[in-house]
Write a structure and sequence with these properties.
The protein is an alpha/beta fold and 139 residues long.
Length: 139
């Protein structure tokens, strides 16, 4: 099983290209590290309109991800199934063998339309665990 996790969120609705404008859930890095130790490929999927990689790097997340799939790079935006399919192709995993973790039903529900099992976790307050232990139980 392969997994995409969502372990960060902007501190405000005005997403910044600086890591200081973002918050990492306390359980994100440990979950990604555990997935990597299990041999699970991970991909981040985002509609952010700029290269999110420097932000993810500054937050300590990029080194735990196999790929980052950005809507403006693949020409599809969430909830279009094509962006989720692009993530599966990037990690060489069939949609039926993937698990997508998201926090927004309207946007992330497109993964289910692509044939990907989808787990939605409500946004958590900054500084609190996001419930990502559930991901480890599913992999």
């Amino acid at each position: 099983m392969r997994c995409r996790t969502h372990g960060w969120r902007p501190r405000s609705t005005n997403a910044s290209s600086s890591p200081t404008g973002w918050t990492v859930y306390p359980d994100a890095i440990s979950t990604l590290a555990a997935l990597r130790a299990r041999g699970v490929a991970t991909a981040a999927v985002s509609n952010v309109g700029f290269d999110l990689r420097p932000v993810l790097d500054g937050l300590g997340l990029l080194e735990h991800l196999d790929v980052v799939v950005l809507s403006y790079e693949v020409g599809a935006v969430k909830p279009e199934p094509a962006i989720f399919t692009a993530a599966c192709e990037a990690v060489d995993v069939a949609p039926a063998d993937a698990l997508m973790i998201g926090d927004h039903a309207a946007a992330d529900g497109g993964a289910a339309d692509a044939g990907i099992r989808t787990l939605l976790l409500p946004m958590s307050p900054a500084g609190e665990d996001h419930g990502l232990a559930a991901v480890l139980a599913l992999t």
